[in-house]
From TrEMBL:
Name of the protein this chain belongs to: Class I SAM-dependent methyltransferase
Pfam families reported for this sequence: Methyltransf_11
Span of domain Methyltransferase type: 113-207
Taxonomic lineage from the root: Bacteria, Candidatus Eiseniibacteriota
Keyword terms: Methyltransferase, Transferase
SUPFAM superfamilies linked: S-adenosyl-L-methionine-dependent methyltransferases
GO molecular function, one term: S-adenosylmethionine-dependent methyltransferase activity
GO biological process: methylation
CDD domains tied to this protein: AdoMet_MTases
């Protein structure tokens, strides 16, 4: 175990508990679970995926890690801080984080970039697995937060203030890049994909998730997604076949509007003008979204 793994271990054990009948570490090594298919595709997240053995196992492992992470870094999570330590409460993150983790597990831990990171347990989860993690985000407030989290955990997750459209790294710096629901907020998406291709080594892998607007009242609409996928195909090779079918069991925000509405992360803006604009655009703030996950490899 590395120093961070030791710091985050549960008392009297080096392992987080598992779901009865499912070996989390076997799941993490791509062995013993034929039902890995929900995470081995380029396509939409499905509601049924959340009940698959591999996703349930990984979410359980991540929940335990996140709880320990929040306990050890409690001084970071001050009242009024924009970011919340609990990201697995989100309607889509319970699928997106296992998706990215699973699709990078078949390679030896190397240098990985969390593009548009915010701050949460996930880059530290990678670091505990032996990865050399760098995070990039445009919010300078996060810099002291990462310093404090690293101090409290004895970790060395790096952080740079940088947009994903202009990353401050040399060509071929990373073995992997993951970007979780950030592209929908990026003003220059094509440039971001150029940057992902540039900073990845040949043979490096990109895991990308993005929210798709089903109600067509926010980014990313389906035609935007089609353009993004076309641009990705010009720069990378897909790891899995692309399947854009949308069956009735699609994982969407609509599923949580009546039940578990706490999983929908929208909050009223504190700024009165922004709050008024949001209400004009979205009414009660609800947006009908699905989530699309894709994995790519740089071959040239």
């Amino acid at each position: 175990m590395n120093r961070l793994s030791q710091a985050m271990a549960w008392p009297d054990t080096d392992e987080a508990p598992t779901i009865p009948g499912v070996d989390v570490h076997a799941a993490s090594m791509h062995t013993g679970l034929a039902s890995a298919a929900p995470l081995e595709r380029n396509g939409y997240a499905l509601l049924d995926d959340l009940e698959s053995p591999v996703v349930r196992s990984l979410v359980r492992e991540m929940e335990h890690f996140q709880a320990r992470f929040m306990a050890r870094t409690r001084p970071v999570w001050k009242d009024g801080f924009k970011h919340t330590g609990d990201r697995l409460d989100n309607w889509s993150r319970r699928w997106e984080y296992p998706y990215c983790w699973w699709n990078l597990l078949d390679r030896d831990p190397g240098k990985v970039l969390d593009a548009g990171s915010g701050i949460n347990f996930f880059p530290f989860f990678f670091a505990s697995g032996g990865w050399d993690v760098t995070c990039a985000d445009t919010n300078p407030v996060l810099e002291p937060c990462f310093r404090e989290a690293n101090r409290l955990l004895g970790s060395s997750v790096k952080f740079d203030v940088a947009p994903i459209e202009a990353l401050p790294y040399n060509d071929g710096s990373f073995d992997a890049v993951y970007c979780v629901s950030v592209l929908e907020h990026a003003p220059m998406r094509v440039q971001a994909m150029d940057e992902f291709a540039r900073v990845l080594k040949r043979g490096g892998r990109l895991c990308l998730t993005m929210d798709i607007s089903l109600s067509r009242d926010c980014d990313i609409k389906l035609e935007d997604a089609a353009l993004i996928l076309d641009q990705l195909e010009q720069r990378f090779e897909p790891v899995h076949a692309l399947d854009l079918s949308r069956p009735s069991n699609l994982l969407t925000t609509d599923r949580f509007r009546q039940h578990e509405s706490w999983r929908l992360s929208w909050r009223a803006h504190k700024n009165p003008l922004r709050r008024w604009i949001s209400q004009m655009r979205h009414g009660d703030g609800f947006r009908s979204l699905a989530v699309l996950g894709t994995t790519w490899v740089k071959t040239r």
